[in-house]
Amino acid sequence: MIWYIVRRLLQMIPVFLGATLIVYLLAFAASGDPILTLAGDKPISPAVEQQLRAQYNLDKPVIIQWLIYLGNVVRLDFGVGFNGRPIADQIAAAFPVTIRLAIIAVIVETVFGVIAGVISGLRKGKLIDTTLLILSLLVIAVPTFVLGFVAQFILGVKLGIAPINVGRDPSWQNLLVPGFVLGAVSFAYVLRLTRTSIAETVGADHVRTATAKGLSRGGVVTKHILRNSLIPVVTFIGADLGALMGGAIVTESIFNIPGVGTLLFRSINAGEAPMIVSLVTLLVIIFLLSNLIVDLLYAVLDPRIRYAK
Amino acid sequence: MRSDNRAPQRPKAQHWVAPLDETPLQEVDAADTSSTPRSLWAEAVHNLVRNPVFIISALLILLVLFVAAFPGVFTSQDPTYGNLSSANKPASAEHPFGTTRQGYDTLARTVWGTRTSVIIGFFTMICSTILGGAIGALAGYVGGWIDEIVSRITDIFFAVPMILGAIVIATRLGEMNMWTVIMVLSIFGWTNVARIMRGAVISTKSQDFVTASTALGAGSLTNLLKHVIPNAIAPVIVTATVNLGVFIVAEATLSFLGVGLPTSAVSWGGDISRARDALRNQPMMLFYPSVALAITVLSFIMLGDAVRDALDPKARKR
């Protein structure tokens, strides 16, 4: 078990290096000069430009910049952003907000998705199943930003029960509506996965045996059907954490939430490569770690799975 | 043939084995062995045409494709002609869906936007499926250290969310058009096809008919193209169909964030994000392009579902 975790952590190193390199190359690949973007319309003096280029290592080849960046990151030095604030500080300010948002979204998709999926899977072909299935298709087909606009308009503007703009230092309460919007698409996928999985397990021999030995319906569902059906669902939720962080760009821009998504979008527009790379790398690490946790959860859900090596 | 007087004639005889005419063996014997069984695909088509989900989604897709091919049939207005003197008008005979803030005809915008979305969705699907399919087939078929390296590279691209990667490239590219959007989405959109192709190729290549083909002297490239890929492609087709809908949403999201198609382009994503400012007074401006987008995406997801059910022998038994 320990060795399995160690091996997986070691496997993350090339993925981490590759992802940072790709993003670094992409952030610099085509046109656009970040220093000119930074200067704006005002002409910049050659001396200042030279100084800025040297300060952000922009005068060196991209590969060297990447190596310098990596060397600093290993020493936990993320550098200074174009606005003069340390990148680590800016991320530390934005990160808890997005984490809260993501936690709400994951709870929404897991709790509502699994419950709706179980109901749907156990009553396959009935009215409630069809209704839930159509609902899930609609949620997938309507883009997140349309859902966001409508939720903001109806709940915020018309009814006035939710804040229209979330703003600085958001509370859990204020993040509730954006969290629901962020988790909506994944909710639909969790519903569909759970439904398929449950419908497959219901007919299995061990379920019939459990019913035959006199276990109550609730016992059969929670102990025998659900546990066996959850593996694909858990896999999806783990892989979804990365997508949620990407989706946060859209949700945060609609509700004006000062989280990682907003920070990332702003730094992408400014061509602020160290910030972009730091944020994307952070998201990639979260994604890899959540996938590792999912793989370890397999062993809990299915005792046949053992990690020997 | 049933010998109807056998039981009364010999009342003491006990059948320890069911008589031949009572076993279902006759049914098996009755099967016409001269006809060849339907192939996976023929069976799938046979199932599909009986599936209402498939019929509905196919009709919707035909409608969407028809609108995309002949937008002139549905509107005579020019979607790029903005008449400010008739801006923000509610629905009328001349403008059945009303007009936008710039005086564009909403119906014309919605109808002509279909073409943009369909082209981007379709070509991104083609590019990402070819790219992902080739990479996945290579990794799965060759195996060994090539598989190891290719899979790690796939992991890297898989770990970066598609929208995020697309924004980073799109911002650097500056002014976008349809083809750059297709390129940007394809660069990060191929990973799930690659993973599924790899898995399917690995499980197919060890089957007996591939070994038989090798024994008959087929080269590995012939084997891959003629035997492995045709038998491994079913799940890839399902994923590609669903992906088409995902790409259409992704294009709209890029336009919403302002890094996709320029504001001069006729696109649902751009129209939806501009309609946000007018939501309070003219909610229908948001409604029409959103519904058009939702119907298009929905029909491709439903088609993917129907094809998956038809190709899955486990689901077919029920």
Automatic annotation (TrEMBL), chain A:
Cellular localization per UniProt: Cell membrane
Keyword Ribosomal protein: no
InterPro entries the record matches: BPD_transp_1_N, MetI-like, MetI-like_sf
Superkingdom of source: Bacteria
Topology in membrane: Multi-pass membrane protein
Domain named ABC transmembrane type-1: residues: 95-298
Chain ranges passing through the membrane: 12-30, 99-120, 132-155, 175-191, 233-255, 275-301
Keywords for the protein's UniProt record, in alphabetical order: Cell membrane, Membrane, Transmembrane, Transmembrane helix, Transport
Pfam family, one: BPD_transp_1_N
Protein family membership: Belongs to the binding-protein-dependent transport system permease family.
Name the UniProt record assigns to this protein: ABC transporter permease
Organism whose genome encodes this protein: Brachybacterium rhamnosum
Lineage: Bacteria, Bacillati, Actinomycetota, Actinomycetes, Micrococcales
